[in-house]
Amino acid sequence: MKKVMIIMGSESDESIMKDSAKWLDWFGIPNEMIVASAHRNPDKVRDLMVNAQSNGYGVVIAAAGMAAALPGVCAAYTPLPVLGVPLTSEIGMPGGIDALYSIVQMPPGLPVGTLAIGKGGARNAAVLAARILALADNTLAAKLKEFQDKGYKI
User: Fold this and answer.
1) Gap between the Cα atoms of 91 and 108, Å rounded
2) 142-151, long-range: CB within 8 Å, 24+ apart, which pairs?
3) What is the mean pLDDT of the chain?
4) pLDDT-derived band of residue 153, with 50, 70 and 90 as boundaries?
5) Using DSSP, how many helices (H) and how many strands (E) does the chain show?
6) Which whole number is the average pLDDT over 103-132?
7) What are the domain boundaries of the chain?
8) Cβ neighbours of residue 95 under 8 Å, at least 6 residues apart?
């Protein structure tokens, strides 16, 4: 099974993005959480994305707040689906709206699937990643059916 990379711009984002990992674990999808900022570690982000597919990843979940460049930068360097999760910040605009606008407003031809702000977005990013990977994995498709039958709860 393909893995999911959960990449976030700051260690402070881990408390929210652990929810993605929790849901991916329930689906049985291998995942890895990595901290790498598009602004502070651009070479690291580029290297991770250029090599993501050959390293067994099938989907990237990228989370960031404020300018939220990380999802777009990830999408620029990989052909894999990138799911962007906007996050709130103590110094950004109220409610994470700045991050949402940054992620959703991508240039034509460079899509990022944008989820809701915060924990709900983190959860839905994991479920959407599972749906993407289930297209080529019948066992995962059955797990998604179980999830649906449980009323979208684990």
Assistant:
1) 29
2) 143/27, 143/28, 144/27, 147/26, 147/27
3) 95
4) confident
5) 6, 5
6) 96
7) 3-149
8) 88, 117
Distance in angstroms (rounded) separating the CA atoms of residues 5 and 99: 20
Tens digits of residue pLDDT in 1-46: 999 999 999 999 999 999 999 999 999 999 999 999 999 999 999 9
Using DSSP, state whether 1 is helix, strand or coil. Answer: coil
Q: Strand 31-35 vs strand 57-65: parallel, antiparallel, or unpaired?
A: unpaired
- Per CATH, the architecture of 3-149 is what? 3-Layer(aba) Sandwich (3.40)
Q: What is the pLDDT of residue 148?
A: 93
pTM score, whole prediction: 0.96
What residues contact residue 41 under an 8 Å CB cut-off, 6+ apart? Answer: none
Which 3-state string (H, E, C) describes 2-41?
A: CEEEEEECCHHHHHHHHHHHHHHHHHCCCEEEEECCCCCC
pLDDT at 95 over 90: no
